[in-house]
Amino acid sequence: MPPQRVFALPRQQSLLLPAVINPFVQDTKLSKAAVIKCVLLGIFLVPLRAILLSLVLMVTWPVSVIITFKHPLKGATEPMRGWRRFMCRRVMAALGRAYYFCMGFRVVVKGKQVSSSEAPILAVAPHSTFFDGIVCIIAGLPSTVSRVENLATPIFGRFVRCLQPVLVSRKDPDSRKNTIQEIDSRAKSRGCWPQVLIFPEGTCTNRSCLITFKQGAFIPGVPVQPVLIRYPNRLDTVTWTVLNRNQLYCPLWEICHSKIKHTSTAECDAANCLQLKTVHANMSVCSALGVPVTDHTYEDCRLMISAGELTLPMEAGLVEFTKISRKLQLKWDSVRKELEGFAAMARSCKGGRITVGEFATFLRLPINSALEELFALFDRNGDGTIDFREYVIGVTILCRPANTEDVLQMAFKLFDTDEDEKITREEFTALLRSTLGVSDLNMTKLFKEIDADGSGFITFSEFQSFAMKHPEYAKLFTTYLELQRYQAIQEALPGDLELSGGTDSGDRQEDSTSDKKDD
């Protein structure tokens, strides 16, 4: 058996696994005693609370109708003033507190909320449940970002109108731009508009970490006051994520107002300043909550849903999209396309992870030294399997750069032994059998797949087109050449290699194809 290189592969530290693998799953397990307690208390408390909530709503709805009487239905050209604003901040806020109290919530507020002129924007995190809406009530009904469809909701649509929300329409292609402009306009109104409350994470998590903040709250370039939410209960029964079970609600909250974050725009350009503010806000909230920051974002949730649609475990779609997209220059559509390719390999695997045998089966190749080394390059954590995150990194960093015109020309010439600019079935079969030990059955299937027009021979354009769709083969080819070169050197100079093995291994570690780059 030919010798194999066994040195450790250098890895880019910033692409290692995050501190929290999946912040979008919550599995609350209730003991039998807790279930019995819920049932017994529910028999008495549920009817009582339902009656109390109905009474509060009967008072709140007429008040909201009075406040919004003859006021624009969709949005507002100017902020509420006078008695309307007073009723929103005092009466509606008091009724909102009563509503949550009837549901069993007790709220503890720490710190001091500043005025709209001091900090026009409130950034609330971590966001984990629809119950987080109580922050709006505690903060005196600031404006929020809301879907335009919410205004048509019976009863509660009137409550939303009292907030004078920044409206988002999924049907309007310019909605994103208009929303940013409206937030910017209100934030720079010098206190005329109420504060704008934003959940910068953009989706719900299980509060085990802080995911990447969306930049919308920081685009205006004005002071932002972070607002922290904690649920100090022993049993978490409020978290509402993409994957959750056994949801009830808990009775205790803590809301903490942090110091306002200022950033000098004179010290950096607009793009860097925007990023700096986002990072500052992340670090502020992180230090107060004592949880790590990860590069997950809402796009990871979309990939989880896509993974489920492709019959993979939903967790397979997690890649830390912010980091992957920034460092590998990938857009969401590109990652989604890679997910489809990964699903073709991993659909029959348990847990959505590929073993070396399944990797070989997909490539229609036997397990050999070249394929094992390629698999090791993909397998970043060395657990003997490849998950989707490792697959995306491997294809982008290892395979696509190897898929160059020169490499494809070299590979094509090796197959084209008679130099007639086409590869016949015999030429294709002879090389693969002698180098990789591919069976006749697999070679026939692979040849037909590359020979797109069914002409019985492969042209360079067909060869190139197939390689672009399957970049793993180009990297496999270069890995095979490296192994052949390594084997030839060992056979030619065995004594020298033994004497200088430590140094040579270290040099080859740096020269070998890997994903080690400057962070």
TrEMBL record:
| Region entry Disordered, spans | 496-519
Q: Which GO terms describe its cellular component?
A: endoplasmic reticulum; membrane
Which terms in the Gene Ontology molecular function aspect does this entry carry? 1-acylglycerophosphocholine O-acyltransferase activity; calcium ion binding; lysophosphatidic acid acyltransferase activity
Compartments, record wording: Membrane
Keyword annotations: Acyltransferase, Calcium, Lipid biosynthesis, Lipid metabolism, Membrane, Metal-binding, Phospholipid biosynthesis, Phospholipid metabolism, Transferase, Transmembrane, Transmembrane helix
A Pfam entry, by short name: EF-hand_7
Instruction: List all membrane-crossing ranges.
Output: 50-69
> Domain EF-hand spans what residues?
366-401, 403-438, 445-473
Pathway the protein contributes to: Lipid metabolism; phospholipid metabolism; Phospholipid metabolism
By sequence similarity, the record places it as follows: Belongs to the 1-acyl-sn-glycerol-3-phosphate acyltransferase family.
What is this protein's name?
EF-hand domain-containing protein
Organism for this UniProt entry: Echeneis naucrates
The gene name on file is: lpcat2
